[in-house]
Amino acid sequence: MTTDPGPWIRTAADLDRLVDRLDGVRAIGLDTEGDSLHSYREKVCLLQVSAVDGGAWLVDPLAVPDLSPLAPLLADGAVLKVVHGGDNDITSLRRDFGFAFRTVFDTAIAARLLGDRELGLQALVRNELGIELDKGSQRDDWSRRPLTARQEAYALADVEHLMALAARLTARLHAAGRVAWAREEFEALASLPPPAPRDRAEGFRKLKGGSRLPPRGQAVLRELHLWREAAAEAADRPPFKIVAAEVLVELAEAPPPTVAATARALARFPRARDEAAAVHAAVERGLALPDDALPERPRGERSRTTADERRRADALRAWRDDEAARAGLDPAVVLPVRLIERLAAAAPRTVTELTAVEGMRRWRVEAWADALLDACAAC
After folding, report:
1. Which of 368, 345, 377, 370 lies closest to 358, judged by CA?
2. In the chain, which end has fewer C-beta atoms inside a 10 angstrom radius, N or C?
């Protein structure tokens, strides 16, 4: 008989006992807690696991950095892995441990495909199971040890109800005729790649509002972004805790003329304010660049849409909104904005061409091919 390892998995021997305990189970629940709100480089700080036949455990990767014994279980297609909003869990576990996943069920995705408006785990567990969860530890620093009793209870609760929740949602998916929709979305979730490494040189392009700046402003923004990345890494803090992105954009849009003016612009961010001289030097570097060294539009980026594309996008949005209302779905489930843009640009004329558009799931083609082709022909 396998010895139960207890709720905490803090040694390699504990992990081996947990793997033995889970041998032969049909389904497990998974969740993770990381430190993205507290550290420069996010890492998985806690892995929660539950079993369909009972039991829940807290695996501590800070104490057991080698989690490879779990790899066969996660890659086993005969074992269902139930997650909630699992894109970050799966990509983080793939990044930190190289895990592969097969046969996933995401309760948030299932609820979204069913037209539910409240998609958080707390709301779903309350609405489907009549149980209230405490979400007070959601933004805690999970890299700190020891965890409090409240944190332990919170972390265990995140996986203890996943099996019952998945069973309820599965029944609803069958009743709605949307099982195939969910399976395809779950397959895509299981195949998500790990997060791309942080790109310091080009990361300024992702700052909201930066794309509207002229080339000189973008040059200043690039220098400010590089400064913030270095400061965040040195302090081991997320960049947004050094200074908000919108402040960098404001500095790039209207560069302050002096160090004192720069310090005033950074008044709400003590870490940045104390480095006003370094921030101002970054601004001046961007202003001093020669014209031929200014940022250029990334190669392959489309500068503007055509009139025909805009008409197709308008037709697709109008159809999407009507269909979403009819089906009781969020419009983004029917057609995400990015997919509308791709369809408008591709202008598919046949089902084969429609299917080839990136992000065009089979279930969308089967449900709405004729309507989508009609909308794409609207010009």
Report:
1. 345
2. N
Local structure of residue 197 (DSSP, 8 states)? P
pLDDT digits (tens, 9 = 90+) for 179-220: 999 999 999 999 999 998 888 889 999 999 999 999 999 999
Fold designation for 8-190: Nucleotidyltransferase; domain 5 (3.30.420)
Q: Is the pLDDT of residue 1 over 50?
A: no
User: CATH topology of 203-293 equal to that of 307-376?
Assistant: yes
pTM of the model: 0.91
- Where are the domains positioned within the chain? 8-190, 203-293, 307-376
Give the CATH fold of the 307-376 domain: DNA polymerase; domain 1 (1.10.150)
Greatest distance between any 2 Cα atoms in the chain: 74
Residues 198-224 as b or e (16 or more Cβ within 10 Å = b): eeeeeebbebeebeebeebbbbbbbbb
Kindly report the CATH number that applies to the domain delimited by 203-293: 1.10.150.80
Q: Starting at the edge strand that comes first in sequence, how are the strands of the sheet with 56-59 ordered?
A: 8-9, 56-59, 44-51, 27-34, 80-83, 104-106
pLDDT in tens, 146-160: 999 999 999 999 999
